[in-house]
Amino acid sequence: MPQHSVVLESPWKRIKLGPPSVKFNEDVARCRAHPRTRQYLPFLPEVVTAEDIQHRMETRAEDPKIMDFYIFLTEDNSTEKFAGNTGYFNIDHTHASCEVGIVVSPDIHGKSIATETFYVLLQYIFEEQGFHRATFETGADNVPMQRWFENVAGIRKEGERKECWKADGRYFDVMSYAVLDWEWKGRVKSSLAKRLNAI
């Protein structure tokens, strides 16, 4: 199955979301294996090759419950730079729900890329695709991400899943968050826009 052709552009014009492409396999491999990425996603492998990413990309494109995007950052009003990957998965059309994830390239952390990416992606999920519920998971040790959910986006914490992720023979606790369509329209969307307008 070929990749989708959906392209989503940010109102702030800094980022664009597009379909996965083979020409960014090396970038994705470096991003996923980077120590800063693996700090809070310990189940990711230490070594990732372009071939690994190609296989992953092809396999996920075949799965109707996954919708992947690559993040591109516009620099100097023209040049587009690979900035990470995002998307939604565990798609359940019966209950109109999905799970959302993101990995931002470590060299551009701290530039509100995640905020802008989630604004664009959640707008698509709720306003164009008609989902009712989107969930998120982050490691219990990933305090910066938890603060972002709670203080920047105003996304609800729903619980803690004990020993949910396994890596290197150890189990890690996971924090679960969720947003409903009416929460997105009534609070979360404006919270993210306020942060982005202040950049």
From TrEMBL:
PROSITE patterns: GNAT. Residues 27-180 form the N-acetyltransferase domain. One of its GO terms (cellular component) is cytoplasm. Gene3D superfamilies: 3.40.630.30. One of its GO terms (molecular function) is protein N-terminal-serine acetyltransferase activity. This is N-acetyltransferase domain-containing protein.
